[in-house]
Amino acid sequence: MAVKKKTTTKRKATTKKATTKRKTASKKKATKSKAKKSAFGGYAISFAGRSETVEQVFGKKPIAPSEMTKKIWTFVKSNSLSNR
Asked: Which residue, of 11, 16, 31, 68, has the greatest Cβ tally within 10 A?
């Protein structure tokens, strides 16, 4: 006697969710830029007219990005370059 194989039925993937996402994305309206917004967090830093080089600010040795951030803020605060 031959054993019959079970037939499996494949389910179609529902595309309803994908189409609803596309519809909501197209419904978004383009916002017109109003007045120029201030910097994020309220800080505005101006390096205009500075003559320091990157080596003078960071040093000649390689440093980590976290150390770069610390040294930039130390430089900005010591030279009063921010608006605060």
From this structure: 68
